[in-house]
Amino acid sequence: MLRVDQVDVHYGAAQALRGVSLEAEIGKVTTVLGRNGVGKTTLLRAIVGRNPVSGGRIEWEGRDLARIRSDGRARGGIASVPQGREIFPLLTVRENLETGFAVLPRAQRSVPDEVFELFPVLRDMLGRRGGDLSGGQQQQLAIGRAMVMRPRLLVLDEPTEGIQPSIIQDIGRAITYLRDKGEMAIVLVEQYYDFARDLCDSFHVMDRGQIVKSGTRAEMVDDEVRGLLTV
Ligand SMILES: Nc1ncnc2c1ncn2[C@@H]1O[C@H](COP(=O)(O)OP(=O)(O)OP(=O)(O)O)[C@@H](O)[C@H]1O
């Protein structure tokens, strides 16, 4: 279980998160929706240890993460698919996947078959450079790399951004598969409402650094939430 409790984040004097609280459970997709610039990426970066928090507390599996840096969090089972994907352009697809090994004990250093079952294109392109892949293929690679780390918490920052519809479907199927396996909690940040609604078990909508609406998927009244996402 991930517990984010009353978290504040500042960039200098500007406050980007104000008292943000949410929980994410194993076997569930928790989605965070919101327009550009409301603080979604800031929240994910705080969870993975890439943004220091100035108030509140983030707890993972009962441990306070305050003093644990991002590499320690990754070893503790937290993997991320960041905005912009952060693929290494000069490394091959295989090498990009193997960067996930760094957080694993030696005996577990293999690429799980399910990565290629979910994203067959990655097997076909193992020897190609990351930078030669299309945006959609890079997104699949970023998810595959996170899966290599055998996470128990997977955070994804707008995985559908700039991606063609057929690959969005593959990504949706992969997220559903990972949720249904029941071994990880998934936090999905999105602006694409329909995609998030179809996948999530619970939702939070952010506006100007705060959570302004939350509920279960059944409570997600389309018009009301959509209204909070349109500019
Ligand atoms: N490194 C930074 N330094 C200063 N301000 C920042 C920094 N990163 C983000 N911000 C500001 O913090 C606020 C929240 O940004 P954030 O990127 O978290 O929003 P977002 O909801 O993820 O938006 P997007 O969908 O565009 O990624 C914005 O006002 C942004 O300009």
From TrEMBL:
<protein>
    <submittedName>
        <fullName>Urea ABC transporter ATP-binding subunit UrtE</fullName>
    </submittedName>
</protein>
<dbReference type="InterPro" id="IPR003439">
    <property type="entry name" value="ABC_transporter-like_ATP-bd"/>
</dbReference>
<keyword id="KW-0067">ATP-binding</keyword>
<dbReference type="GO" id="GO:0005524">
    <property type="term" value="F:ATP binding"/>
</dbReference>
<feature type="domain" description="ABC transporter">
    <location>
        <begin position="2"/>
        <end position="231"/>
    </location>
</feature>
<dbReference type="GO" id="GO:0015658">
    <property type="term" value="F:branched-chain amino acid transmembrane transporter activity"/>
</dbReference>
<dbReference type="Pfam" id="PF00005">
    <property type="entry name" value="ABC_tran"/>
</dbReference>
<dbReference type="InterPro" id="IPR017780">
    <property type="entry name" value="ABC_transptr_urea_ATP-bd_UrtE"/>
</dbReference>
<dbReference type="GO" id="GO:0015807">
    <property type="term" value="P:L-amino acid transport"/>
</dbReference>
<keyword id="KW-0029">Amino-acid transport</keyword>
<dbReference type="InterPro" id="IPR052156">
    <property type="entry name" value="BCAA_Transport_ATP-bd_LivF"/>
</dbReference>
<dbReference type="GO" id="GO:0016887">
    <property type="term" value="F:ATP hydrolysis activity"/>
</dbReference>
<dbReference type="InterPro" id="IPR027417">
    <property type="entry name" value="P-loop_NTPase"/>
</dbReference>
<dbReference type="InterPro" id="IPR003593">
    <property type="entry name" value="AAA+_ATPase"/>
</dbReference>
<comment type="similarity">
    <text>Belongs to the ABC transporter superfamily.</text>
</comment>
<keyword id="KW-0547">Nucleotide-binding</keyword>
<keyword id="KW-0813">Transport</keyword>
